[in-house]
Amino acid sequence: MSSTDPAPARTQTPGEVLLSATGLQKSFGANTVLRSIDLTVCRGEVVALVGPSGSGKTTVLRSLNGLEVPDGGTVAFAGGPSVNFGGAVSGRELSALRDHSAMVFQQYNLFPHRTVLENVIEGPVQVQKRRRAEAVQDAEKLLDRVGLLAKKDQYPFELSGGQQQRVGIVRALALRPDLLLFDEPTSALDPELVGEVLKVIKDLAEEDWTMVIVTHELAFAREVADEVVFMDGGVVVERGHPEQVLRNPEHERTRRFVQRLLHPF
Amino acid sequence: MDWELFRSSFWPLLRGGLTGTIPLTLVSFVVGLTLALVLALMRISGKRLLSGIARVYISLVRGTPLLVQLFVVFYGLPSIGVVIPPWPSAVIAFSLNVAGYAAEILRAAILSVPKGQWEAGHTIGMSHRRTLRRIILPQAARVSVPPLSNTFISLVKDTSLASLILVTELFREAEQIAAFSQEFMLLYLEAALIYWVFCFVLAAGQGAIEKRLDRYVIH
């Protein structure tokens, strides 16, 4: 990558802790979805959150971006904001978290009334107050990388699901966040479109972007992730190297989950 | 049919429409819509007091006749010492009335935008207010054009009530000429024709706006 490319803002050496979440708790009424979750992400690391639906993995991910406000626990970025969810949390604190991370959504959530390019530069120009010409240049470079430069003036409805999700990824990248968050990025896609999106994410992993990915694609997690965290019933059951967690799980629950995904029927 | 009278009265009526009906409609609609947005945001604010106030206001406006509202402003307020001339009285009454109806339309339109759009705005660092302005309202606008057009076209016709508080507009012109000439049928039908032409043009305008706002959705 040349120096003008929007690369992850790295002020510390890889391997240092970037994000630490501790004691995240969350209940919806009588339903407890998170029971004291801890998560540490180092710079350049890819963490895959896996587990059955309802296990709380998406809630953990959303908490890191302040889209979900946990009932307790803290989320802290090294040298950045540290938000304690135990008390009242201000909008300012949540937006401080969002200054450091960006989310890629399962349903893409592109802005339908804006063109592809406008979707990508919205954050840099409106929020980060960067010069429009510079933001456009960055955006075009990023769109080119994912093979969508030709689509820059089209509206989201004119794109396939896979193309929309690649725009969703570019929109997140354009903010130059420290941390990329992916919420089941391929779950809404037709099977034949999954590959093009996973390919983009894999390239980002190879460029040492720091990422937390909630996914059901175990083969992908095994290939890309540095650490796999298996959650069930609002707790972390098991975590470790993907080969270990996904091939030789220590826990019965993990074993059953992996088996079920490998042999659905 | 007295064609001579039809012809000679056409310009006074049309002028009443162009200088009375249309400005009254436009001003009342713009003011009313602004107020409606405030009311709609109060309704969805999640703050009990704000949404309660908006709810009571909307209920009062929708639960009382427009003519009564108009008379309260023009003939009622002077008895407590507030005297407002005809034209401003009409603008006040029509604006407050439009606000009550349009508030519910805007509220529904804002709520129709998927929650994921709010989240996408937030994740790129936008505040609540900026997300509302740049992401949510433009999408809500598209949804609200057809029902708002209804309100607008109703308002064009409702302004004829202003003739009862002495505002010079299309229908008051018609009434005066009718009273003078005793040709009631002719003048009322002529007034109706001009109202219909106005509304016809507006409906075409609605179509054009919808088409423009629909450019980013699948057809």
How does this model look, in words?
The complex is a heterodimer of chains A (265) and B (219). With 265 residues, chain A is α/β, with parallel strands linked by helices. In chain A, 37% of the residues lie in helices and 24% in strands. In chain A, the strands form 2 sheets. A 6-stranded mixed β-sheet of chain A has the order 6-7-8-3-9-10, sandwiched between helices. In chain A, helix 3 (116-127) packs parallel to helix 5. Chain A is globular. Chain B contains 8 helices and no strands. Chain B is flat. The termini of chain B are far apart. The model of chain B has no long low-confidence stretch (mean pLDDT 94). At the A-B interface, helix 2 and helix 3 of A face helix 5 and helix 6 of B.
Poorly predicted tracts of residues of chain A:
1-5, 7-12
Low-confidence stretches of chain B: none
With helices defined by DSSP (H or I, 4 residues minimum), what is the helix count of chain A? 9
Q: Which structural category fits the helices and strands of chain A?
A: alpha/beta
Rounded to an integer in angstroms, the radius of gyration calculated over CA atoms of chain A is 18 Å
Short description:
Chain A is an alpha/beta fold. Chain A is built from nine helices and ten strands. Chain A has a six-stranded mixed β-sheet with strand order 6-7-8-3-9-10, sandwiched between helices. In chain A, strands 2-1-4-5 form a four-stranded antiparallel β-sheet, with helices on one face.
Keywords:
heterodimer; A: 265 residues; four-stranded antiparallel beta sheet; 9 helices; 10 strands; 37% helix; disordered N terminus; B: 219 residues; mainly alpha; 8 helices; flat
Secondary-structure topology with pairs:
The complex is a heterodimer of chains A (265) and B (219).
Chain A: E1 17-28, E2 31-42, E3 46-50, H1 57-64, E4 72-77, E5 82-84, H2 91-100, E6 101-104, H3 116-127, H4 132-145, H5 161-173, E7 179-183, H6 191-206, E8 210-214, H7 218-224, E9 227-232, E10 235-240, H8 242-247, H9 252-262
Parallel strand pairs in A: 3-8, 3-9, 6-7, 7-8
Antiparallel strand pairs in A: 1-2, 1-4, 4-5, 9-10
Helix pairs in contact in A: 3-4, 3-5, 5-6
Chain B: H1 3-43, H2 48-62, H3 66-76, H4 86-111, H5 115-123, H6 128-158, H7 170-181, H8 184-213
Helix pairs in contact in B: 1-2, 1-4, 1-6, 1-7, 1-8, 2-4, 3-4, 4-6, 5-6, 6-8, 7-8
